[in-house]
Design goal:
- It is an enzyme of class 2 (transferase).
- It is built from 14 helices and 7 strands.
- With 470 residues, it is of the alpha+beta class.
- The chain has a 5-stranded mixed beta sheet with strand order 2-4-5-7-6. A two-stranded antiparallel sheet has the order 1-3.
């Protein structure tokens, strides 16, 4: 039987899935089902009014039967569903609620003078209520139909004999009602199972999609962080290259002075020392100390500048700073690195524009735009100019226009330049996150806007607008 129900789509192979469906289908709307059960109890007892209209002599007996069933069975079962511990037994309670009045109803016709002449309409009313108002599955409904029909047959055998034609009509009507109710409930359950399976599949797909999206966001976040570290690594490599020159000169000079000192020591240990040799040796040592001091000082300044740039890149705290002076310092610190790529940075910024914002985030944006221009606007290595023009259209807004006169960007690519992982230099090892980081930083960290305008062969303009107080 279970295999047949499974083939008909009225049962799931998976026991866990079947339990979930039953829990949703049978116990999903207990409150509304209780309202229907109350209505059914009062309706069942209320049919005694019809008995009073037709046969007032026996209404006391029929009211006792109908009312007794309603008060002693139907209403207690309805109240029992309010107990949390009884909710797992909801379908059994529904079945008892249906079977008891269905089996007791034929006893009313044993009391009525008309007997079972009008039994079919009464039984059909019970069938109609059960199949439409209660969330019974096809199996419990079949049990209800069988027990109710057996009770009707037994009661008929105890009552006055009916004309053969009337008995046949009554049973035909009742059996036809049973068949229609079984079909209606089976069709309703079949659709509910399909909807349940579809909902489960959508839920699983949603969970998989959300998991994939979380993984994608995590991967993207890691790549963005890696790109930020790569830009800082580029600074490290550039500064290391710049610092190596003065340190090398200082090391060479100190080695030369060491040799001069040994020569002077050997000369002084001899019997005679010429004044000219001593003067020349002291002059060489003084010149060497001067060169060593100058180169060490130059290296110290480079290290200090690098330290400040690194702090700017890592700084996430809000500060108040004068934009013109801050940009001049940033360009001075980035200048040696950009000059190696042939990029000359020019700044036009009026004094007095004070921001209360995040210098680390702004430094990240300016650095990314400058290095992006060096790599993409002048790809042949010939270098060019990168101009920053700062204006203040109103008291609450600062505008930074970053422009180059490079190769420009094709119109069909301009809408994608801020997309993550979009790059036209994939063959050169670029991964396409520089402008994406700049876009996200301006929008999220600086609460501003960024836009790009470009024309092939005539350069690119990146316009940044940020509030004076982020």
């Amino acid at each position: 039987m279970l295999r047949l129900l499974t083939r008909l789509g009225l049962r799931f192979d998976d026991i866990v899935e079947e339990r979930r469906f039953v829990d949703q289908y049978v116990r999903g709307n207990i409150g509304w089902t209780q309202v229907a059960m109350l209505l059914g109890a009062f309706t069942y007892a209320g049919y005694a009014f019809w008995d009073w209209v037709l046969y007032p002599d026996v209404v006391a007996t029929t009211l006792a039967i109908r009312g007794g069933v309603a008060v002693l069975v139907l209403l207690p079962l309805t109240a029992l569903l309010s107990v949390p511990a009884m909710k797992p037994w909801a379908e059994t309670i529904f079945l008892v609620y249906c079977v008891v009045p269905g089996c007791v109803l034929p006893s009313v016709y044993l009391v009525l003078p008309s007997g079972f002449t009008y039994a079919a309409p009464g039984v059909m009313m019970v069938i109609l209520f059960v199949s439409t108002m209660l969330p019974l599955r096809i199996g419990p409904l079949a049990v209800f139909c069988l027990t109710t029909w057996i009770a009707l047959c037994i009661a008929e055998s105890l009552g006055p004999a009916l004309p053969p034609g009337l008995r046949f009509i009554n049973h035909s009507l009742v059996l036809n009602a049973f068949a229609l109710s079984l079909y209606a409930v089976a069709a309703r359950e079949f659709r509910a199972r399909q909807q349940f399976r579809t909902a489960q599949a959508l839920k699983q797909e949603k969970e998989r999609s959300e998991a994939s999206l979380r993984d994608l966001h995590a991967t993207q976040s890691q790549l963005v962080q890696a790109e930020k570290l790569a830009s800082l690594g580029q600074l490290v490599a550039g500064v290391a290259h710049e610092v190596s020159t003065p340190l090398g000169l200082a090391l060479t000079t100190s080695t030369t002075m060491e040799a001069d000192l040994r020569a002077m020591g050997e000369a002084l240990s001899g019997t005679a020392v010429r004044r000219s040799d001593l003067t020349r040796g002291i002059a060489r040592i003084e010149n060497g100390l001067r060169l060593t001091s100058e180169n060490l000082h130059r290296a110290s300044e480079m290290v200090h500048s690098f330290k400040q740039v690194a702090i700017h890149h890592a700084d996430e705290e809000r500060h108040t700073f004068e934009l013109g002076g801050w940009l001049s310092e940033l360009i001075a610190k980035l200048g040696p690195l950009l000059s190696r790529q042939g990029l000359i940075v020019e700044l036009d910024c009026p004094q007095g524009i004070v921001l209360s914002s995040y210098p680390g985030a702004l430094a990240q944006v300016i650095s990314n735009l400058a290095f992006n221009a060096a790599a993409h606007a002048y790809p042949d290595g010939r270098g060019g100019r990168f101009t920053m023009t700062v204006t203040q259209p109103d008291q609450a807004l600062a505008r930074i226009a970053c422009a180059d006169q490079g190769v420009g960007i094709r119109e069909d690519l301009q809408a994608r330049v801020f997309d993550p992982f979009f790059t036209t230099g994939r063959e050169r090892g670029n991964i396409g996150l520089g402008l994406h980081i700049a876009f996200n930083t301006v929008v999220s960290s600086l609460s501003g806007r960024i836009a790009l305008e470009s024309e092939p062969g005539r350069g690119t303009l990146v316009l940044i607008e940020i509030p004076v107080s982020s």
